[in-house]
Specification:
This protein is an alpha+beta fold. It has 2 domains: about 80 residues, Winged helix-like DNA-binding domain superfamily/Winged helix DNA-binding domain (Arc Repressor Mutant, subunit A, Orthogonal Bundle), CATH 1.10.10.10; about 80 residues, Alpha-Beta Plaits (2-Layer Sandwich), CATH 3.30.70. It is about 55% helix and about 20% strand. It has 7 helices and 7 strands, in the order αβααββαβαββαβα. The chain is elongated, with a radius of gyration of 19 Å. The relative contact order is 0.12.
């Protein structure tokens, strides 16, 4: 395996660990989530035992250079702060992990959770981004601006509204019956 691929995997794994920590500590709503360097490295090493602290620190400083995180010494400890760009990336990953978990672990109760939006034509780039974003998170595209998920996802939708420009036009609906249900059930393996 090349060094570049290994390095890319380390950075991806770091984003996953940030996302896991965000979910575990329920701090995704705070303006500037942070972690102590020690806690972060420990969490990463628990998942990836073949990494060295040197590799982790090198990748962390690259994330700082890319302005995704800030590394600051405070109160005698080194702390990692997620910058706005980094926070959006990590929250997106957190949402994806939560939705994937629900698809795997929950029993479907027969209801559909729908997100729809009407972004003005003048902001069509935001509309296109929102469509791609919902698809990437695992929603089913029911119509151009209507997306469906088979499990409750109101908190995740609220997070999407906070991080995606244009999401202020989103609405959330719970439906008990929809047309083409069999096709959608097949999509979600229900």
């Amino acid at each position: 395996m090349s060094t570049e691929k290994t390095y890319g995997k380390i950075v991806k794994k770091m984003i996953d660990v940030f996302a896991d920590l965000l979910i575990a500590t329920k701090i995704s709503y705070l303006p500037s989530p942070y972690y102590t360097l020690g806690k972060f490295i420990k969490a990463l090493l628990e998942e990836e035992t073949n990494l060295s602290k040197k590799q982790i620190k090198k990748a962390l400083y690259d994330l700082k250079k890319r302005q995704l995180i800030d590394i600051i010494e405070k109160d005698g400890q080194v702390k990692i702060y997620l910058q706005e760009k980094g926070k959006q990336k990590v929250i997106t990953r957190s949402i994806k992990l939560l939705l994937d978990y629900k698809k795997k672990e929950k029993k479907w109760d027969g209801r559909w959770f729908m997100v729809f939006f009407d972004v003005p034509e003048i902001e069509k780039q935001k509309r296109e981004f929102l469509r791609k974003y919902l698809k990437k998170l695992g929603f089913y595209r029911y119509q151009k601006s209507v997306y469906i998920f088979p499990f409750e996802c109101k908190k995740e939708v609220e997070l999407i509204k906070k991080i995606v420009e244009g999401a202020k036009y989103m609405k959330y609906i719970i439906a008990e019956e929809i047309e083409e249900e069999e096709k959608i059930k097949k999509y979600f393996n229900l």
